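Quick start: read one record
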Amino acid sequence: MIKHAASLAALALALASAPAGAAQPSAPAQALEQRFDALISTADQLAWLQQMSSEPNHVGSPHDKANADFQLAMFKQWGWDARIERFDVLYPTPISTTVELVTPQHVVLGGQEPPIPEDPSSSNTAGALPPYVAYQGDGDVTAPVVYVNYGMPTDYDALEQRGISVRGKIVLARYGGG
């Protein structure tokens, strides 16, 4: 745990006062940085991360508020003058979402991702929102589906070369590359 907020302030001042473009920090700055690093506990950081991610914490959720209260308590423990300010924001949340394959056989898709055995909190979905795209309009769309790999221009070019059009279709893209 960081027990000395003054060390953080001193480190910030030391780094801010270092000349621009300096190749190596001075010995006193390095010593200060090492003292600051020694105050940081990776075990504490892991415990905080686990606590803050242990339940669904979308905007307005009970765990979101618990996280804010937890962080405020930590800041005060470290000697910071901290408080929580409340702001009303427009944030859409769905009532329900459904994705279905209607032919050649009827299959209901979507829903929460399966739990990960190495992460016990991944099965804690009570109170979680269903998967959805924020600010997307309501609607019912039925059309043929075309898989577009990552949805990159080269992926669309490859489909076009094979005579496959995406016009008027639902495109299904893989996550992570685009």
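The chain has five helices and four strands.
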